[in-house]
Specification:
414 residues; alpha/beta; Spore Coat Polysaccharide Biosynthesis Protein SpsA, Chain A; 3 domains; 4-stranded mixed sheet; 15 helices; 14 strands; 43% helix; manganese; transferase
């Protein structure tokens, strides 16, 4: 029995013992005394109810449905895995009931298995796949197929065997921001209720520190950012039966017009770019592995220019206090259209100079892929026109950068 319950119980017991003929006494006492006795009894009952309710609430909290399972996808990099686990546990420990943590290892690397099993705060899963891989295109890495198999197996395990309603996928080379879990909890309702949203991501491809400003700002995107992302069971019910043999661009090409939520300032950051990140870069460029490996120092330059400057959010945003309804399908087009309409248009070869010399938000228009890439080079952002013929982070052929508090809105001419 809780201490408050015991005190209340003793008080009730004492009242009962000292007033054995309470009904008779009530008939003989004056109105004031009766009210005082009634108030005393009511106070005791309220105290008993309050303490009992607190106990029940604690029990309810213990059995609450998790917001999402969090799975770290690992293979053979124990050092990176340890760094990722420590980063996640730093912020997950206080919300562990909402976000149960898993490590899913592909293969049998003993150092990875040992590292994962050394943490009591997580559950370990192991995917052992000895089936030979047959690549479909010359020069493809077998790793693409292994990664696809691992993802499908792990997500099937979490959604179907463990019955989670949502899963957040991290790679084994990531660190997360202080508001990572609050962000995903706030976005979970959007993911569940807005069927035009396919997933929620923690990443911004154009999130270099010189192009982001506001950790509170979120956008819808037609482009799948990946890198720390959450999907729901209903989406996985659709994807699992037709999951591709090779990962990852299939998801970027098969979202069926649905969109993604992404932050202005990244909530997750990849620190081990020579691993999965490098493989994905090869795939996105559609280059054979041997040719990509020849890039050598040029990839190092690419990393230093575009990836290393990505800013990981360092502000603990209280997402529970922020209304995210503007991101709904029925509201966001108007919200975004107002941003575009209120921005001042600039044209010509010297758009960078013009943009930096205009007060307020700026709209920079591009004619086609070549024009977009020319402007992107001037600003120093990703100039890759992705395989799906869209620039990163785009929304209806528009995307946004920030220079301080000024929005640079890139839009296609129609």
């Amino acid at each position: 029995m809780f201490s408050h319950q015991k005190d209340a119980h003793d008080s009730v017991k004492q009242l009962h013992v000292t007033k054995p003929h309470s009904l008779l006494m009530c008939q003989n006492m004056d109105a004031v005394s009766f009210v005082q006795l009634f108030a005393q009894a009511l106070g005791i009952l309220c105290k008993l109810f309050h303490s009992t309710w607190k106990g029940l609430q604690r029990l309810i909290d213990k059995v609450q449905e998790p917001v999402a399972a969090v799975v770290i996808m690992a293979c053979n990099r124990a050092d990176y895995l340890e760094r990722t686990i420590k980063s996640v546990l730093k912020y997950q420990s206080s919300v562990a009931l909402k976000y149960p943590l898993f490590v899913s290892q592909d293969g049998a690397d003993p150092s990875v298995r040992s590292k994962a099993l050394s943490y009591d705060q997580l559950a370990y899963m192991q995917h052992l796949d000895n089936e030979p891989v047959k690549t479909e295109r010359p020069g493809e890495l077998i790793a693409y197929y292994k990664i696809a198999r691992h993802y499908k197996w792990a997500l099937d395990e979490l959604f179907y065997k463990n019955n989670f309603s949502r899963v957040i996928i991290l790679e084994d080379d990531m660190e997360i921001a202080p508001d990572f879990f609050d962000y995903f909890e706030a976005a979970a309702a959007l993911l569940d209720n807005d069927k035009s949203i396919m997933a929620v991501s923690s990443w911004n491809d154009n999130g270099q520190k010189q192009f982001v400003h506001d950790p509170y700002t979120l956008y819808r995107s037609d482009f799948f950012p990946g890198l720390g992302w959450m999907l729901s069971k209903s989406i996985w019910d659709e994807l699992s039966p037709k999951w591709p043999k090779a990962y990852p661009l299939w998801l970027k090409e098969n979202h069926k017009g649905r969109q993604f939520i992404r932050p202005e300032v990244a909530k997750g950051f990849g620190v081990g770019w020579e691993g999965y990140r490098f493989n994905f870069m090869c795939l996105e460029k559609r280059l054979p592995v041997k040719e990509t490996l020849k890039m050598g120092s040029s990839f190092g330059q690419f990393f230093k220019q575009y990836l290393e400057p990505i800013k990981l959010n360092d502000v603990r945003v209280d997402w529970k206090s922020i209304d995210l309804s503007f991101l709904r399908e029925d509201k966001y087009p108007r919200h975004f259209a107002d941003m575009v309409k209120n921005a001042k248009p600039v044209y010509g070869a010297d758009v960078v100079l013009k943009a930096y010399n205009i007060d307020g938000d700026v709209r920079i228009q591009y004619r086609d892929q070549a024009d977009f890439e020319r402007i992107a080079r001037q600003f120093g952002i990703f100039e890759e026109w992705k395989v799906i013929s869209l620039p990163s982070c785009i929304y209806f052929l528009f995307f946004i950068l920030k220079i301080g508090t000024t929005c640079l809105i890139y839009g296609a001419l129609h």
